Amino acid sequence: MMPSVCFYVTYGLCLCVGLLCVLFVSCWCSQWRGGFAWDGSNLQFNWHPVLMVSGLLVVYGIAAVIYRVPFTWEQRKYPWKLVHAGLMLLALLLSILGLWAVFDFHRAAEIPDMYSLHSWVGICTVVMFAFQWVLGLAGFLLPCSPPWFRAMLKPVHVCVGGAILILSVTSCISGINEELFFSLNGATGEVYDSLPLEAKFANVLGILIVAFGLIVFAILSRRPWQHPEANESAYPLLSQDCT
Amino acid sequence: MMPSVCFYVTYGLCLCVGLLCVLFVSCWCSQWRGGFAWDGSNLQFNWHPVLMVSGLLVVYGIAAVIYRVPFTWEQRKYPWKLVHAGLMLLALLLSILGLWAVFDFHRAAEIPDMYSLHSWVGICTVVMFAFQWVLGLAGFLLPCSPPWFRAMLKPVHVCVGGAILILSVTSCISGINEELFFSLNGATGEVYDSLPLEAKFANVLGILIVAFGLIVFAILSRRPWQHPEANESAYPLLSQDCT
Questions:
Q1: Does A169 lie at the interface with B, CB-CB under 8 angstroms?
Q2: Is A230 inside any structural domain?
Q3: Could you give the CA distance from residue B59 to residue A157 in angstroms, rounded to a whole number?
Q4: Is B84 on the interface with A (CB under 8 A)?
Q5: A195 to chain B: closest CA residue
Q6: What's the start-to-end Cα distance of chain B, in Å?
Q7: Domain count of chain A?
Q8: Residue A179 lies in domain
Q9: Nearest-CA distance from A208 to chain B in Å?
Q10: Does residue B241 sit within a domain?
Q11: pTM of the full predicted structure?
Q12: For each of chain A's 243 residues, which pLDDT tens digit applies?
C-alpha cells in the first residue's frame, strides 16, 4: 500500500470513529438521559458530555492531525494554519460551553463544583488548552512574532498538543464512568453492575473515545506522515510588520 | 543549559514524581482505606490501586524512558534491552497481580466483574501490554527474529508503547475517581463533595499520576533525547541462529 493511501485509510477511520463518538454520546444523552434543555435541570447537564466529547476530543483531534493530510502539503501553509487555529478555537469554545453547562446545572441544583478528580483533571485540560491556543496564536499567526520565539515554541506546542489529547481522553473516560455510577445506581432503579443496555452502550462509547484518541496519537506519531517542513516556509508572514 | 543536563533534570523530576505516586497511593490505602491483606476483604482490594499505579504506570514509565538516558548510549545496547524488557516484565507481573487482587476480592464479596468503563479500559490496557511484551521479546531479544520483522515491528512497538501509557493514565484516573465515589459516599459517612482530607489527598495523587504520565510522554517525544540508533547496531544478536 502506498504511504498516502495508508494515511488516508487511517484518516478515514479517524473521522468515522470521531463521528461515531459524537453520535453515541448524543444518543446516550437523548435516549437514556432524557434529552437536552438549558434550564438548570438534569437536561442541561446532558450538554456537558456531548460538548466535551465533541469539542475537547473530536474537533480537537481532527484539528490536531490537519497538517498530516498530504493534500495540504501542495498548498500554501498559511491558510491551513488558519483552518487549524479556527478548528481549535471551535473546540475550545465548545469545551467552555460544556463547562458552562455543568457549572450552571450545579448552581441551580446546589451541587458543589470542582470536588471530583474528574473535575480537577478536566479543568486542567481546558486551562492548558486555552493557554496553548493563545500562545499558538501569538507565536504562529501574528506576523510580529520573532523567529526565535516561533522556533522555541514549536516543539513545546507539538508536545503540549499531545499532552492535551491524553488529558482529554482521561477526562472523558473518568467523566462517563462517574456519570454511569451516578445515574444508573441512583433514581432509575437499574444498577450499573447488572450491565443494562444503557451501561453497555455508554461503555462502548468509552471504548470509541479511547480508539479515537489512540488513532489521533498514531497519526501524530508516525514520522513519514509528518509535514515536510523543510520544503516550505514555516513562517509565511514573517516579513510583515505587526501593526 | 546543556541538552543532557536538561534531560537529567527532567529525568530526575520523572523519578521523583513516580516515587511520589507510589508513596501517595500506598499512604491513601493504608491511612484511609484500612491497610492491606490477602483475605478477600476490602483490605485485599487495596492492593489493586497500589499494584496498578506502581506497575502499570510508574515501573512501566521508567522502563519506557530507559533508552533516553544518555549514560546508556556509550554502552552496548543489548544489556539495556534486557533492563528494558526486565522492567517491563516486572510492570506486567505487578499489573497481573493487581488484577488478581480485585478479581479475588470480587469473587469473595460476590461483586460482578468487568462491568464498569474503568474495568473495560483497564483490561484493554493490560491485554495490550501483554501482547506488546511478547511481541517485543520475539522481535528484539530472540536472535532468530528476522531483520524485516524487527524493522517492521519497531515503529509499531514505539507507537503502541505510547498508547499503553495513555491507556494506563486513563485507567488509573478513572479507577481512583470511581473508588472515591464508592468509599466516601458509602460507609464512612463522609461525602466526596465536601472534600474531606482523604478526597483532597487522593485527588492530589490523581494529579501526580497525570503529571508523571505527561513527563514520560514529554521525554519520549523530544527528538534530541532519542537514542542515536544510527551509530550502533540495533540488533546485536542478529547473526546468531535460534536453536
A1: yes
A2: no
A3: 28
A4: no
A5: B115
A6: 49
A7: 1
A8: 5-225
A9: 11
A10: no
A11: 0.94
A12: 566 899 999 999 999 999 999 999 999 999 999 999 999 999 999 999 999 999 999 999 999 999 999 999 999 999 999 999 999 999 999 999 999 999 999 999 999 999 999 999 999 999 999 999 999 999 999 999 999 999 999 999 999 999 999 999 999 999 999 999 999 987 666 899 999 999 999 999 999 999 999 999 999 999 889 888 633 433 333 333 332
